[in-house]
Amino acid sequence: KKFGESEFTSAKSGELTKGVFADGGAAAAETSALSGWHNVFVPYCTGDVHSGNATDVEIKGASGKQQFVGLINIRNIADLLGEYFDGVQTVFLIGQSAGGFGTNLGFLEFAQAFPGNDVNVFNDSAPLPADNDVLSPVLQFGLRSLWNVVPPPGCDDCGTKFDGLENIQKYNATEYPNSTFGLYSYLEDETIRDFFQVGDPITGEAYAAGLEDLRDNLLEPTGRWSTFFIEGTGHAPSTSDTYFEIEEGGTSLQEWVEELATASDPPASVAP
After folding, report:
1. Domain spans of the chain, in order of start
2. Which of 119, 129, 153, 237 could be disulfide-bonded to 134 (CB atoms 3.0-4.6 Å)?
3. Percent of the chain beyond pLDDT 70?
């Protein structure tokens, strides 16, 4: 997939004017507190949720050789940014949908590129549930085999090719205990349910239960993760006007994200 000048020009007048990027200009009814930060946009070009490390892959039915080099790209980008932004005080990594998976699988690249900083994370709608009925061993095997997804060397709990990817989330928080991590999701997110589906469809109820199990038994026990869950089947609002409309229990998504970006401890989790 190509992402060149024309695609970037289109993004600059669309998604990059909304949500977390909104600066109060003509295309934005609201202003994000993050709009005054230095913003770097990383496009999604490789079809491997920013996690691949495999070149010249041949796939039956696909023409040519495929380049699943998402993690390689992230590593190169992180290194360049670490050099360019030497001396910055705060680094906030935001990933939306596929980019959200990239915040889990590529977090260490940014943490290592900014060794003097705490890299905080906002994962918009890309959880790695522990429930095998939601994130199945078959899918995990496929992703690791096709894209050569390799967990960090020190992540002993990341398991075999069939299981354990969810523990990357715990590993990142344990290795970098001064960073804060946040996961936003609709409880019945239809997009990720479709992505995770192997065989029978994943029901909204099963997906919601998987999210709650992930929060209660893996993320929150680290002391470094916060979650923001709301009812619905939607997906990834962080670059849309919906970002400013979401509120649950008296806390707006915008407020939660801003605290996540700057606080030394993660904000309180939010749920219906």
Report:
1. 5-262
2. 129
3. 98
Q: Please tell me the distance from the alpha carbon of residue 119 to that of residue 107, in angstroms, as a whole number.
A: 8
> 171-214 pLDDT, tens per residue?
999 999 999 999 999 999 999 999 999 999 999 999 999 999 99
For all residues of the chain together, what is the average pLDDT? 95
Domain range 5-262, CATH class: alpha beta
Spatial neighbors of 186 by CB under 8 A, at least 6 apart, are 125, 229, 230, 231, 232, 233, 234, 235
β-sheet bridge partners, residue 68: 54
Helices (H), the chain: 5-12, 70-84, 98-105, 107-113, 137-147, 167-175, 190-196, 204-214, 253-262
Distance CA 246, CA 254 (A): 8
Dihedral (CA of 126, 131, 133, 137) sign: positive
Q: How far apart are alpha carbons 68 and 56 in whole angstroms? A: 8
Query: Which residues, in sequence order, are CB contacts of 173 under 8 Å at separation 6+?
Result: 179, 181, 219, 222, 223, 224, 225
Residue-wise pLDDT tens digits, 110-148? 999 999 889 999 999 999 999 999 999 999 999 999 999
Q: 4-13, 24-33, 173-182, 186-195 — which is least confidently predicted?
A: 24-33
**26/59 Cα distance (integer angstroms):** 45
Alpha carbon 253 to its chain centroid, in Å, reads: 16
